[in-house]
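Subject: Sanity check before I submit

Could someone independently write out the structure tokens for this chain? I want to compare against mine line by line before I put it in a report. The sequence has 204 residues.
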Amino acid sequence: MSTKQAMITEIESDTERSDTTAIGLKIDAAIRFYQPKRFWFNESRDVTFNTVASTASYSYADIGTEFYKLDGVFLTNGSSVIELDRVNYTALETADTSTGVPSCYAYINRALRIANSPDDAYEVRLTGHIKIEGPAAVGDADNEWFTEAYDLIMAHAKAELYAHRWEDPGNASIQQIIAAGELRRLQGATHDNVALGYLEASDF
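---
Independent answer below. Compare away.
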């Protein structure tokens, strides 16, 4: 378990430079760089929300979690769990607008649209590659970028600092090599943890 503050302190110690603000910004930039990449720790099958009767569209702000890629959408109807079919969004534009038990979904403009428009409140579970933000505060613990990808984020941040802040291309190259190695390590761990290379959906 570690924190952004611990990483800032370690980078200042390793580089013998006191540049807290710039280091913090490069750490944030490193997280943004790797957010779209899929690892075992940014896959989820635990995101759920409840539909609202006669409401077909749900933004990721409504759901509370943003997905880079949806693997599956599962709706609970009584004792049954239904996997909704993914369809092209244009198909929903001309679809029957009557309410009922949803059977399919599409994604557009950072929102999930389901059809039929639900006639009741149903629990919906989403699986796939989620966007994990960096910590809100430098001392916050349990953020996955610092518990699972600490060395990757640190090496990438150092490479950017050496290349663009401290004008030291030699050390920048060294850190780029380290970051590439850490990326391969995490990708290997992802392959080992998820044998198919993606989060396999299952019934609940």
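---
OP: Matches mine. For the report I'm noting this point. The longest strand covers residues 67-77.
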